[in-house]
Design brief:
Chain B: It is found in: Cell outer membrane. Chain B: Belongs to the SusD family. Chain B: It comes from Arachidicoccus ginsenosidivorans. Chain B: This is RagB/SusD family nutrient uptake outer membrane protein. Chain B: Its main location: membrane. The complex is a heterodimer of chains A (about 525) and B (about 525). Chain A has about 525 residues and is mainly β. Helices cover about 5% and strands about 45% of the residues of chain A. Chain A is globular, with a radius of gyration of 30 Å. With about 525 residues, chain B is mainly alpha-helical. Chain B folds into two domains: about 210 residues, Serine Threonine Protein Phosphatase 5, Tetratricopeptide repeat; about 210 residues, Alpha Horseshoe (Serine Threonine Protein Phosphatase 5, Tetratricopeptide repeat), CATH 1.25.40. Chain B is about 40% helix and about 10% strand. Chain B contains 20 helices and twelve strands. Chain B is globular, with a radius of gyration of 26 Å. The chains are: A mainly beta (about 525), B mainly alpha (about 525). Chains A and B meet through β1, β5, β6 and β7 of A and β1, β2, α1, α3 and α20 of B. β5 of chain A pairs antiparallel with β2 of chain B, so a sheet runs across the interface.
Amino acid sequence: MPSPDLLILGLTQDANSKVVGSSLGRTAMYSMLGRVTYNYDSKYLLTANFRRDGSANFSKSNRYGNFPSFSAAWRLSRENFMKNLTFINDLKLRGSYGKLGNSDISPYQYQSTVTFDHVWYYLNDIKVVGALPTMPSNPNVKWESQYSTDLGMDLSMFNNRLSFTMDYYNKKTEEMLVNVPISYAVGYGDNFPTLNSGSISNKGFEFAATYNKREGRFNYSLSANISTVKNKVLNLGNKNEILAGGVSPGGENVTRTAVGHAIGQFWGYKTDGLYKTEAQLEADKSFAPNAALGDVKFVDKNDDGILNADDKDFIGNPIPKFSYGFNSNFSYAAGFGTLDFSMIWQGSYGNDIYNNGRYWGEGMYHYYNDYASTLDRYRSQEVIFKNPVSGVTTVYPKNTETNIPRAILGDPNHNLSASDRFVEDGSYLRLKSLTIGYTLPNALVSRWKVDKLRIYIGGKNLLTFTKYTGYDPEVASDNGANGGRYNLVRGIDEMTPWGITFANSREVFLGIQCSF
Amino acid sequence: MKHTIYILAFLVSGSLFLSGCKPNLDLINPQELSVDTYYKTPEELEAAIIPAYQAIVGRTQGGYARMLYYELLAPGDDFNHTFKWEPMYQDTYNTPSSDQMPVATWKDFFNGVFAANIALDRISNFTGTIDEARKNRLLGEAHFLRAFHYMHLCMLFGETIPLITDPVKSSDEYYPTNATAGQIYQLIIEDFQKAVELLPERSVLYSNAANIGRATKGAAEAYLARAYMYRPILEIGKPAEFAKAQVQLKNVIESGQYHLMSSYSDNFKEATENNAESVFEVQMHNGTGWLGDDLSDSWRWQEIGMFDGTGGAWWNLAPNKKTYDEFEPGDPRKFMTLWCDNGAKYTQIDGTVTDYKYWMAHLATNKDLYGTRKYCPDVQVADFDDGINDRLLRYSDVLLMYAECLNEAGDVPGAKKYINMVRARANDVVPSEQPQLWYQHSPGTIPDVDKLLAKDTVINGVRLNTIKNIIAHERYVEFCGEYLRYFDLLRWGMADPQWLEPLKKIGWTPRAMYYPFPQAELDNNSNLKGNAMNN
């Protein structure tokens, strides 16, 4: 035990130890809520909320936050002047404004502490436990606030067969809780302080429409939705940018969050195809001293004749222009039973993906297996390869009309640097699920004392339409190296042979649903 | 009723432990202790110095446990990377700022600087009761380790790294800027000087076995001397301070605390760690579990030791033909340093005893490279790692540095005397080695300096007709794989460009003298400018 004040077993034990281990953390919250609602004939509706929250994640002086919100609605369909429009069943205009709080950070951030976990050195082969502050604390950390305005309309028509919902939202997050990167020279390694740093805004529209109808034995409903978001960083404290999304290997940051731009934009070199002539190589001799025919031609953004971080630029946007979905349900009831069919489609449009899997699969810098796409690599002349084991001879023809660089051990030109080569259109449309069912007639199953017996077959992720070349355009939400800072690192596909992310699997299922 | 008004007001409280009334919101972390209440006893000050040592191993393994051996060895003319690891840029003087190794090393050594700074701050401001000798020893260790970490950072990244001499106190200090010329060197020298004053002699400190492995007065003197001699690397454009180094080295020699082991290979074995030749070494420990359980082990054996295809070794970095040729005929050190023809045998985990012929038969390419037997067990075990301490500064280095200082001062006979001590030991009979090796039965046959001069041999294009050239040769073979060759060439090359020729021949340029600052650091810290490799 490093100190008698610590009463936790195994605190300084290593993860693999067979000695018992345990950990303990505590959190607490204290909230007061108040609400007033006013309703006039279901025509005019007003609500006022107030909440006051206290969180143990903040110090005494910053502990409490006050969060009021108001909403109002006007049901036009109940007004006299709407009475003649009988095809309208319901029409409501809504508006709301509110302030919400966020205290979702790791506990104890405001306290400065020493840790004993994984702090040790062996002297004379005996483990000596030490003490070290490993977390940069922030005594001033406080509530993040989100100011949210929403204007909307609900409409249903034709005996409620057709309904629309429309919303415009405008959210502004202030004093955002961010793990702000600091210099590694300060000594805290990858642990960054949680600061109330900056503000962002999110604006957008959401539409949804549903149509449902019964025609005799045929019953169906169709719905569609679409939403847009426009994100902008308004302020990021005094530093005004955060580079994140360190991809493996090496942890090169491939996103940059900067004031005036959307959060987590892809960041890297721009490229201009490959070096295909000796004249190009000669012209760039000092700019790209290690380049040869078939290497990537990087763009010297600032024209200073040197390729370095100053030449990096925004190279893609992981946030879709819009995302959308379609649902449909059909059923047909007949004497032989009921047939049902349903589908869910979802998609996104206009978002980019940083396909880091291609670092490994198209790297061609080592004796590794590569993607089949590398067969189209640049070859300045024909290559004839005789397999020494099988004796089979393969001819690889000269191939200069391509954008895939040459294969070269050790990658001397740094073709693998983060660049727009790895940024791809991530738009997709996917049949997320499909189910076909058959319910046996009641008359039949009631003999077996069964209320309902349904047999169904279906699948998930059966069809995907996309130009994305990675395994899955629905890129998993985080890469581990960034400690959950999801918004800063979205859209990075880290699929590798020893992957951090996993593809959505295609599933086919068969089931029997039986209720008694 | 057309009007409805509801008014609701209620209180909610929640907590894991309490329910009902208002919970305690002043929670303290039950796993950690407040910085304000810690460092209040001598034992807690002892705990403060431990992480400054741990940084040598590397909390993110950018220290001697894993990555550092590539960074220190690969740029030399003595080691090449093999086909097993591509891309390895350390070898080609083309390291990109996004490379994974320098960033881990940067984090780990600056973590060590931080730990040393915390220790210095808390120990010097300690108001409780502490034995004066203990306090001095702790302060000495902290100064020694801060200089040690800065010396490594400066050797690898150059003298424009940030200078941080106090633990960070507020968020204003999160983005340090570049040090100016000479600042880092001055800090290294002053810290080692203070460590020399404060630390006890080895025999005093190590009389308590629990202190074995800590920095001693002798270690501080030897490192101070090394820093004086490394000045051309640590402070650009400035010459080495041989006279000052000579004083420190003389003190180490005259202290009587150290002597050469009779067997050269005792310097590379686990059973003979912290021996009388070891002035300072990193303390590795291999636990009983897979990979030693706790990141205190060395992967050197697995990563850069045995040949490819032999019992699953990785062989990422290998001594080259030049290194093989550098050993004189009859030098037993060749077979203790390299896996090569007529050398030692290696027993795989399946019991197969293998030798050079076997390795060549199983090797498809890179047949002109060798294996590194130094710090490598002869028998494979079912794990990657081992607990062999890297000897970071040996007494034979003290002797050869001293010889170099004497030679610079014009004392040729003195220089010869100390070189001869090292060469004489190299010829010793080694009874514990493998039975087929000739030097187990009869001594090595390398001549003393005078006879070597008389022979007028040329090795790898360098004529052994001057004391300086003989020292260079002797350092090459004596310390092969001990992280000195590249830096020797650099420091000599700054005074006499002919010593840079071997590096230039393999692609070195002045721009590539240091590794680039990690891009991740520059991304986070816009106050810091990179070095030439970043441009």
